[in-house]
Every structure is written in structure tokens, then in C-alpha cells.
Amino acid sequence: MKTFEPVIVAFCCHYCAYTAADMAGSMRRCYPSNIRIIRVPCSGKVDAIHMMKAFQKGADGVYVAGCLEGDCHFKNGNTQAARRVAYVKRLLDEIGIGGERLEMITMSAGMGERFASTASDFTEKIRRLGPNPIKGLKKAEAV
Amino acid sequence: MKTQSALEKVLAAGHLAVTSECGPPRGALPDKIKEKAELLRGYVDAINVTDNQTAMVRMSSFAACLFIGQMGLQPILQMVTRDRNRLAMQSDIIGAYAHGIDTMLCLTGDHPCFGDHPMAANVYDLDSIQFVQMVKIMRDEGKFQGGDEIQNPPKMFIGAAANPFGDPFELRVARLAKKVKAGADFIQTQCIYDLDRFEKWMEGVRDRGLDEKVSILAGVTPFKSVGMAKYMKNKVPGMSVPDELIKRMSGVPKDKQPEEGIKICVETMQRLKEVKGVRGFHLMAIEWEQKVPEIVERAGLHPRPLV
Amino acid sequence: MITAEQKPIQEIMEYVRPYSRILLVGCNECVTVCAAGGRKEVGLLSSALQMAFMQEGKVLDVKEMTLERQCDPEYVEELAGSINQVEAVLSMACGCGVQEVARRFKEKPVYPALNTKFMGASERQGVWAERCQGCGDCVLGLTGGICPIARCSKRLLNGPCGGSSHGKCEINPDVDCAWQLIWDRLKALGLEKRYEDIAPAKDWRASRDGGPRRIIREDLAS
After folding, report:
1. For C37-63, what is the mean pLDDT?
2. Model-level pTM greater than 0.90?
3. Contact (Cβ atoms closer than 8 angstroms) between residue B193 and residue B246
């Protein structure tokens, strides 16, 4: 059987995680190709519906990567994002998708190493959890 | 005299009155209430019968009052506005009076969230002050709250509660003034442990001459143990228990604590006797009715006057 | 405003289970402000329901609409074009909106997705508290602008009960004692004397106790 290769959506803040991803690249630091990066102007810009739609469209895992506490370019977008993530995690638990498929992660623009290790760790975690429970079903319906 | 109430007669004759209370049983157990009341015979002038106290369902105060009345003792019908609207309250009052119950205590009642039916609708059609006003109008004007005339109106001796230890303290005298204005004849206070605060309150009461207009019965409750003292201090809202009493209770071995609790209670009563405006005592020995005679005797309030 | 909270998702799912095509209708008024039933919440609930049912092997077709006001027939009429394409309506409005949709579309089952809570105000971002019970005979002019009916646990009209402790209500230390607030405000306004007037027994006819209420403005009524 083929190893399960999860699809992971990472909403990355332009001021930190997105730059850190660049940094990881210039450092030649490898990270899994499972990560689909979506650049956002601030993690606080990521709404609950964006996280939900990612899962609905087949993501196996989602994380929101924002600035370190106190470092948000827009003052408190990252703390708002963290609260929103907590809210959606509960919702995902309630509907059987599982809140552990969603995480909030923080880092600074210089943390290329952290970006890469986070991407690897999260991919591993989702690989262990297996596919998003609605994924196969959706395909079956589409047939 | 406004009524036939034995309590009114004792007070009118200038004696220090003594009342105590019985909580009705949680079941159709007439013997329970009779046993409790029998313990008090000859030691108190009247017996308060609680109305679903702490919002727990019990035999109705009215029914339990009937048993006590049949024993030749004097019941005080307690009634709370939590469970009944003004229709139900007035019909129970005339019913009780028709059975010879002539003394009552008008209360708001604990919120249902404290009891065994937290899911119940709470009524609070009236508050305690409006309740007192209603009973007074029934008695003095012979009218129902709705305005119609009552045939043979109930002549109730009207009691109300006062808590000198609730907040805001500066409102506590004003609130008593409102109850007096509404028509309260006697007041039974919350359990007194904090004598300093009580005396301060009484000072305010006397300054306004309220002690001349209403008979204040000082509430006392003996501690059974240091645990109970701590519970009263920490868990009962609107209760003030000084630290030195807790210290005193915990300073004696467990088997001596009941005696210490009674000693404190008797000492409190002795000191309260000296407070101008205190016209008697309301002794709430919670699930400890058998100690009431001893406390009354040791406080020098036995035998009770015959009026 | 009228505040509301979403029902547990399991309860909503039980309502929706028999159907495969539903209309999920939000409201742009109060429930949008209290983040319970506006456009955003409609989108989230739609997504959640679809994913939840998908795991049961069912494709739920959700048509999303958010009306300007669900309690006014003019706006509810906007559903007329879509109503025949669905088997049932799930409303994210307060109880008034749910009923207005049910009244207009008699042949369609309408289900509530929210529990309507109370008339309240926003204390701070994300926190709403009860302020008014709609008793129909406002006493705020006598109580320093703080309502004892809505904010005292025993709706006392003549002052605090014995359970008022350090400004808090006996039922819960998180609840302010309304009469402490009233007293503080009367003092600040120099109106303490007002406290000693006895508030007579309230005439509850103006409230719900007089039966379902209605307002008719002769000059406006058609």
C-alpha cells in the first residue's frame, strides 16, 4: 500500500511565517512538499470559514502560522487568530473531523529552521491521523 | 391590639419574646413536625414554620402550621414570594387565618438555584415589602390586593426579615424603614454573630425611631461545630462571622465544640439583651431543636410569660 | 438588541436529517451583531453540516441566504424565489424571524438553528448581557437607569435582598447585584431619597402576563 501523503494547507502571515518559508528555502532546508502555502497579510485575516472551507475541499490538515506573541504587525491579529483556531477546533470535533487536524503556530521571519521543522512535524502528525474523513466519501460521490 | 396573636400579646406586655423555628419534613410525615414542635413547648412563644426553605420542597408551611396549632402551640406561618403569585398567597392567607393562624412572616425566599428544583420557574410576583403591604391592607382595610372587599378579613400579625449584614450596609436601615412603612409589626433578623456590626445597625435603627414602631427579634443560631461556623462564614451570602468566633470554636476539642457553640450563643443573647431596641429573640437551632430549651433557660428567658 | 446562540450542532442535525436540500437563512440585524446568525455564521454552519453529513454518506445541498431582516415580511418575501427548490428551511434568525418565515411559507417546515436568549447590550467584544425584559412599563426613571426586573435575580423592586454581598448577587459571584448598582448610581446622582419610596406591586398586565402583546400605531397601520 502506498504511504498516505496528506494535503496540508498552511495560512502563512506575510510578516513572519511566509518570510520564514523563504528563509528555509535559501538555507536549503528541506521540508515536505505536502504543505500548500497561502500567503495572508496577517494571521488575523484568516477567518473561521477559510479554515472550514479548506477541510471541506479536502485538506487533511490546516495550520495558521502567525507572528510570535506581541510581535503582530497589526497589534493583535495573531491572538485573534489563535482564538479563532480554538473555536474552529471545537467545531471540527463536534462534526467528527477532529480538532487535532487544525493548529495555530507562531514564529518570527528569521526562523527558517522552525518553519521547516514545523512543516515536517505537522505533516507527520497528520500522516498518523490518516486522511480527512470526508475525503474518500467526496470522491465516491463525485463518481 | 391589632390581632389575636400570642406573639403580639407577649410583646405588648413588654416581655422579651422568644420564637424558634421548625423546618417541615420532606415527606408526608406528621409525626416529625409534631416531635420537633413538642421539644419547644413551654420554651418559646411561637414557632416559625419555614416555607420550602433553601428552595427545597418540603411539607407546606400551612399544613405543618395546622399540626402545630392542633397541639396547642402557636405557629408562625412563613411564606415566600418565590413560589406563589398574589392570588395563591392571598388564598393561603385567608385559609390559614380561617384555621386560626394569626401570625406570619413575609419573605422573598432563596433563589431556586440553591435548592432541589433549580429548573423551576421562579415567581416573584411581589417582593417582600409589597407582600407586607398586601397583608396589612388585607387586615386593616379588609381588601384584597386587587381592590375587592374581603369577607371576614384575615387579621395577621405581620412579620418581616432583616439582614443587618447584607450589602450595601448603608441601605440596611433604610430597607428596614421601608418594611416598617409597608406595615411590618415585628422583625426577625438574620443570625447575629457580628455584634459590632449589629449594634451599629441598631444605632441607625434607633436614630430613626424605628425601634419604637416595630418589634425587633434578634436572630441567633448556635454553632454545632467549627465546620458549621466556617460554612456560615464562607458559604452563606450576606452572613458575617468574626474570625475570633472561628478561633474560639477551633480552640476546643471536637467533642466539646457543641457546648462551646451553645456558650457563644448564650453569651450573644446576654449581650443582645442590653441592646436598646431588641425586643426578643428568634432562635434558629438548625436541625438541633432539642437544644432550644437549654439555651432559653441559660439565657434567663424561662419560664415564658403567660399572656 | 436580541441576542442568540447557536444550538448544539447535533440538535440541528436531527432537524435536518430527513432532508437533502435545505435553505439556510441568516439575518443581518441583531443576530449578526451578536455573531450568531449573520452571513458569516450561515457560511460556517453550512460548511459544518455538509461535512458532518458527508461522513454519513449523504450529500446535503445547502442554499445560503441572508436577509436584511427576517422579522419583516418585505424581506422574507425575498425567499419566495428559492423556497420551491428546497425541502425545508433552517433559520439562523431569532425566534421572531423563524416565525415570520414559517408564517409566510406555510407549506415548508422551518427549523431554528439558534436559541434566542435575551434583550441585551454588549459589555465588551464578544460578551453580551441581559438588560431588559420588556415588562411594558419602564421603571428605569426611578432606578437610576438600571433595571431591577432584568438584572436582579429575584426582580425585586424595593431594594436588595439579604444575599447581596460585596456588590455581587447571591446566585453567582459573577453576577452584579442590581440594587448595589442602582444604589451607587442614585447616590452619584444625589437621588438617594428616592430609595425610600415604596414601589407598589407591579401591574404585570403590561408584560407577558397580560397575554401575547401587540402594538398598533393608528397613523401607520394599514
Report:
1. 97
2. yes
3. no
Alpha helices in B6-153 (DSSP H): 6-12, 30-38, 61-70, 86-98, 128-140
**Contact C132/B at CB under 8 A:** no
Q: Amino acid letter at B75? A: P
B245, part of any domain:
yes
Residue A1's pLDDT band, with cuts at 50, 70 and 90, is low
Residue B287 pLDDT more than 90? Answer: no
Q: Inform me whether the pLDDT recorded for B301 exceeds 70.
A: yes
Question: Which of B 106-135 lie inside 8 A of C, CB atoms?
Answer: 108-111, 113-114, 122, 124-130, 133-134
Q: A95, C9 in Cβ contact below 8 A?
A: yes
What is the C-alpha separation between B291 and B40, in angstroms, rounded? 9
CATH of the domain at A84: 3.40.50
Q: What is the pLDDT of residue A142?
A: 39
Helix ranges, B157-279 (H): 169-182, 195-207, 210-213, 226-235, 243-250, 257-273
pLDDT in tens, B177-232: 999 999 999 999 999 999 999 999 999 999 999 999 999 999 999 999 999 999 99
Reported as a single tens digit per residue, the pLDDT across A32-53 is 999 999 999 999 999 999 999 9
Domain that holds residue B218: 6-298
> What is the total count of domains within chain B?
1
Residue B77: its H or E element: strand B75-80
User: One-letter amino acid identity for C96?
Assistant: C
- Show which subunits contact A, needing at least 3 CB pairs below 8 angstroms: C
Catalogue all structural domains in chain C, each as residue range(s) with its CATH number: 2-118 (3.40.50.2300), 134-208 (no CATH)
What is the helix (H) or strand (E) element at residue C162, kind and residue range? none
**What average pLDDT does this structure show over A20-37?**
94
Write the DSSP symbol of residue C133. Answer: -
Let me know: does C107 contact C84? Beta carbons within 8 Å: no
N-to-C CA span, chain A = 23
Instruction: Give me the residues of B, 73-102, that contact C with CB < 8 A.
Output: 82, 86
Domain membership flag for residue B303: no
Residue B306 lies in a domain: no
C177 reaches B (C-beta below 8 A): yes
Across the interface, whether the CB atoms of B237 and C170 are under 8 A apart is answered yes
Strand ranges (DSSP E) for C72-153?
A: 88-91, 110-112, 114-124, 127-132
C199 contact residues in B (CB cutoff 8 A): 129-130
List pLDDT tens digits, range C10-34: 999 999 999 999 999 999 999 999 9
- Domain housing A107: 8-142
